[in-house]
Design brief:
Elements: H1 2-31, H2 38-54, H3 62-84, H4 93-115, E1 130-133, E2 136-139, H5 140-162, H6 164-174, H7 176-181, H8 186-211, H9 222-232, H10 237-257, H11 262-277
Antiparallel strand pairs: 1-2
């Protein structure tokens, strides 16, 4: 029973990693850029939600505060691309990588300056509630994390494969010039992708904060999410989720069966093995660019 409890807890954590990894994949699929501030977007979205719900002056209902926070983070992502990243057009990809790393530092500093560095918790309607399946006791927040992650992944997968906007995003990624000549507003599409990445990060932040306290350093979870995206394969939305789940499950079982400290190394050891034996990832959907 202890192992089953570890499995559920690891699955819930893995879903959060998977959602952050989804942000990596979303932006990479459409822009071929890697946003190393994705974890910090998640952290900032969580703090925005906590501010909206827990503030004495605001005290907005949780179900209203979450969509507001998602919209705020989506707007932040859109403005980031429109105001900053468009000016990087034509620059090497490493310049964008360095820019997003710097952005992560800025977001962590801003969160600490605005909300301090002490851990804070999000007040949710399902906090402290349990679901009992025989002798197995599950926190309702863990069940919510798993369900929301599965539904969001399915919605995004259908969006990129069925919706015209999602297909246009992939077309812009494959060949920006050809997409432009076909009438696709490439610059606007890329801004919308960054907005979508910010919105997904906000949802991940809400789910993570519902499970425990957060502080500005929580944004560093983006490193594990990046490992999840590499394991699943950049370009694969289901792969990002599965990669996150793999890491989420490995951590508690490694802590349970291995000496102290090895649980933190295990996710990166798996990433290293994947890079050696299957460099494109376990569920790679990488396609060669068409000329």
């Amino acid at each position: 029973m202890d192992l089953l409890q570890l499995f559920i807890s690891g699955l819930a954590n893995g879903c959060v990693y998977g959602l952050i990894a989804l942000g990596f994949v979303l932006i990479y699929k459409a822009t071929e850029a890697v946003n190393f501030a994705q974890g910090d977007f998640m952290m900032f979205g969580a703090f925005v939600t906590i501010w909206l719900t827990n503030s004495e002056h605001l005290g907005i209902n949780f179900w209203i505060a979450v969509p507001i926070a998602v919209i705020i983070m989506g707007t932040l992502g859109y403005l980031l691309d429109m105001v900053v990243l468009r000016r990087m057009f034509g620059q090497p990809q490493i310049a964008v990588v360095i820019l997003t790393i710097a952005l992560g530092f800025i977001l962590r500093f801003a969160a600490g300056a605005i909300w301090a560095h002490e851990p804070q918790s999000l007040e949710t309607p399902f906090a402290g509630k349990e679901v009992r399946l025989g002798s197995l006791v599950l926190g309702l927040e863990e069940v919510a994390v798993i369900l929301v992650t599965v539904l969001l992944t399915l919605a995004l997968y259908l969006f990129f494969n069925r919706a015209k906007l999602g297909i246009a995003m992939q077309a812009a990624s494959q060949n920006q010039l050809a997409a432009y000549y076909m009438g696709i507003p490439v610059k606007r599409i890329q801004s919308l992708v960054w907005a979508l990445g910010g919105m997904v990060a906000a949802i991940a932040g809400v789910l993570f904060a519902s499970k425990g306290a957060i502080d500005p350093s929580t944004g560093l979870l983006g490193i594990k999410a990046f490992a999840a995206a590499v394991i699943g394969g950049f370009g694969s939305l289901p792969g990002a989720l599965i990669g996150g789940i793999i890491i989420g499950l490995v951590e508690p079982f490694a802590a349970y069966g291995l000496p102290a400290g090895y649980s933190q190394i295990a996710p990166y050891a798996i990433m290293l093995l994947v890079l050696i034996f299957r460099p494109a990832g376990l569920f790679a959907q990488m396609q060669k660019k068409k000329v």
